[in-house]
Amino acid sequence: MKRISPLLVLTMLAGIAVSGMAQADRVHVGIGLGFGVPYPGYYYPPPYPYYYPYPYYPPVVVAPAQPPVYVEQGSAQPAPAAAETYYWYHCEKPDGYYPYIKECPGGWQRVAPSPVP
Length: 117
Description:
The chain is α+β, with helices and mostly antiparallel strands. Helices cover 18% and strands 8% of the residues. It has one helix spanning 4-24, and strands at residues 88-91, 96-97, 109-111. The mean pLDDT is 78.
């Protein structure tokens, strides 16, 4: 066992001394053997769902208030009294006045109103 130990140290020193020359070469070829169960690799989780961004609302536009409009009214004079220009309408056949008789085949006659006796 004591002989293996110096032999191992000597082999490692030779490998270290030759490793500089080995890496200076352009071609690096290696053969490897692997034992074990194949591993599928890193599994990426599904991405998070895409959410819409907050909506953009346009700035609020405020129009200045219109100045009040004042309407000048004329002087307060009493209106002139209206003359009595209304008439009663009389029908001969059938005999009567308008609100009580709706149709008059002979035509309506205008009558000046008279006070009730």
